[in-house]
Amino acid sequence: QVQLVESGGGWVQAGGSLRLSCAVPGVGFSVTTMGWYRQAPGKQRELVATVTSGGPTNYADSVKGRFTISRDNAENTVWLQMNSLKAGDTAVYYCNTRIFGINYWGQGTQVTVSS
Questions:
Q1: SS in 3 state form for 8-62?
Q2: Digit-coded pLDDT (tens) for 27-85
Q3: 64: number of CA atoms within 13 Å, CB side?
Q4: Nearest-5° angle of CA 36, CA 69, CA 79?
Q5: Maximum distance among all Cα pairs of the chain, rounded to whole angstroms
Q6: Terminal alpha carbon distance of the chain
Q7: Which of 86, 87, 91, 95 has an alpha carbon 20 to 30 Å from 16's alpha carbon atom?
Q8: Are residues 37 and 20 in contact, defined by beta-carbon separation less than 8 angstroms?
Q9: At 107, which helix (H) or strand (E)?
């Protein structure tokens, strides 16, 4: 069974930085796309950033220039470096990957940005 193991998150003041990580252990190949989504209270889950095994990235407009997604293909690990955090970034962040047409999600990690 595929499991996504997340770490990072926490509380930070506006303008600060946090780093999230997510690993997909036990998969014997490099998954194509890994990414991060977030869900704030009362809102729908939304895309934050994705990265493919070939390198191309995609970011939500709201995080461009502040967040950076990166990955280690061999370890199926993805990181999200979040800088210049704003109160509006407060949400539960979920790691995501898709293998053989099935979406897999991490357990979610809370990011709270205090203004």
A1: ECEEEECCCCEEEEEECCCCCCCCCEEEEEEECCCCCCEEEEEEECCCCEEECCC
A2: 877 788 999 999 999 999 999 999 998 889 999 999 999 999 999 988 899 999 999 99
A3: 6
A4: 75
A5: 43
A6: 40
A7: 95
A8: no
A9: none
Q: Given this model, what pLDDT does residue 31 score?
A: 81
Identify residue 69 by its one-letter amino acid code.
I
Residue written as tokens 């003041």? 13
Nearest CA among 53, 54, 44 for reference residue 94: 44
Q: Which two tokens mark 3?
A: 């499991």
SS3 74: coil
In the sheet that holds 67-72, the strands lie side by side as 5-8, 18-23, 77-82, 67-72
> Comparing C-alpha atoms, which of 22, 15, 20, 17 is closest to residue 110?
20
Tokens at residue 75, please?
């370890």
Token pair, residue 28, equals 């014997």
Q: Kindly state the tokens that stand for 97.
A: 């990957």
Query: CA 25, CA 89: separation in Å to the nearest integer?
Result: 28
